[in-house]
Amino acid sequence: MPVNNVSGTDNPYAGSVYVPQSNSKNTLTITSYIQLLATQLQNQDMTNPMDNSDMMNQMTQMAMVQALSSMTETMTATSAMSTTTYVAGMVGKEVTVAITEENASGIEILTGSKVGVIESVNLTGSTPTFRIKGDSTDHPLSHLLGIGDVTSSVGDGNSSGEEVK
């Protein structure tokens, strides 16, 4: 669970988010669970042994956690492949791209839009980016506003309508 509103040393009023990463010391794998269960069985009180139903419940819960983790990894891989296929298929298509600027709070705000034809796609980073013909900016897929010229639909009046060829 992320911790919100952690201030940095540069600006005590700017909030950020800290999300702890999983590692071998804070993650329980099926192997570490089996080791823990074996240790628990070895050191249990013989006059008051562990209940079989409790042990089965724990094993079932661990199996469910393992299955959910596997399903999450599969869904993440499927989503990445779908995104890659989608953005690669956009090469040569006319698109409208959001032009943004970061405000004082670190939030991107829409300042305009640009229409152009996708020239290339970069799949090497964590998120795919694309370039429009005649523009050296790598645009993230999240800045894609629409296929074709949709500057009239942006609606905030900040659209430049500038066409890049």
Oligomer state equals single chain
How many strand elements?
Answer: 8
pLDDT < 50 stretches: 156-165
Helix/strand/pairing category: alpha+beta
What portion of the residues fall into strands of 2 or more residues? 15-25%
Morphology call: elongated
Number of DSSP helices?
A: 3
Mean pLDDT: 79
> Major β-sheet, in short?
6 strands, mixed
Task: Please explain how this structure is put together.
- There is one protein chain.
- With 165 residues, the chain is an alpha+beta fold.
- It is built from 3 helices and 8 strands, in the order ββααβββββαβ.
- Strands 3, 4, 5, 6, 7 and 8 form a 6-stranded mixed beta sheet that branches. Strands 1-2 form a two-stranded antiparallel ribbon.
- A hairpin with a 6-residue loop joins strand 5 and strand 6 (139-140).
Highlighted features:
single chain, six-stranded mixed beta sheet, 8 strands, disordered C terminus
